[in-house]
Amino acid sequence: MNTNNEPIANQPLDVLIIGMGFSGICSAIKLLENDITNIAIYEKSNGIGGTWHDNTYPGAACDVPSHLYCFSFAPNPNWNRVYAKQAEIKEYLENIVSDYDLIDYVNFSRKVSRIVLNEGTGLWEVEFTDGKIVCTHHVIHGGGGLHKPNKPNFNGMAEFSGAVMHTAEWDDTVDFAEKNVAVIGSAASAIQVIPEIAKKAKNLHVFQRTPNYIIPRGDRPYTDKEKKRFSKYPWLAKFYRWFMYMRMELITFPIIKKDSKIGKRAAKKIIDYMRQSISDSSLHKVLEPQYALGCKRILLSDDLYSAFNKENVNLITDPIKYIASDSLVTDDDQIYKADVIVMATGFDITGHLYSIEVIGLNQKTLVEAWSEGNEAYRGSCIAGFPNAYLVTGPNTGAGTISHIHIIEQEVGYIVELIKLTRNHSYIEVKKDKQDQYNDEIQRKLENCVWSSGCDSWYLSDNGKNYTLYPENGRSFEKQLSVIQKEDFIITLKKNASLTTNDNQRSINP
Ligand code: N01
Question: Would the pTM of this model clear 0.90, i.e. be above it?
Answer without folding.
Answer: yes
